[in-house]
Amino acid sequence: MVETERPQPYLITPPEFDLTRFPGELARVLDGVDVACVRLSLSTRNANLIARSADALREICHARDIALVIESHIRMVACLGLDGVHLTHGGRNLRRLRKDMGQEAIIGVFCGTSRHDGISAGEAGIDYVAFGPAGQTPLGDDARAGPELFAWWSEMIEMPVVAEGALTLETIRALAPVSDFFGIGEEIWSKDDPLAALREMTTAMV
User: Fold this and answer.
1) Distance (Å, rounded) from C-alpha 163 to C-alpha 130?
2) Which pTM does this prediction carry?
């Protein structure tokens, strides 16, 4: 992912999708809006389904020169020809993971609301951190990655940061000056017209 002066959308797939329909929908969105990266984020543990989904989305993303990373499944990156992995939490083995995957692979880590976890991930040589939820959500506890966290990160740390979780237009406007990417998933896929929804969200990234 290339950091730019203006924040960019970073798309997250639905946890489940119809392989006969979703790839075409994704292609339409990618043709309509500049996107930094796509994350394959499936809830299934079915390796065959994950592989078929990755194959379908890889063709679409790579044809448009867009990176495709997979959530959590480190061992599937190389065999599926993907660009990297997004980890849902850090750990003690990030340095080893970077060494094993090489410098070309994208490695990102979700760090919740923890500055400490973000710094530790950065010191291990990963490519970006994600904080969230950035918006209000009834799920989980009341923890929220607020503007002060992103402002601090933007001022103190050079590594790109992704804001994700329960994003609204108001949240995006508030975080645009201090975020590099916005992780957008259900915010658009739950709409009748995902492309129109994403276009509306990108207008707030100024």
Assistant:
1) 6
2) 0.95
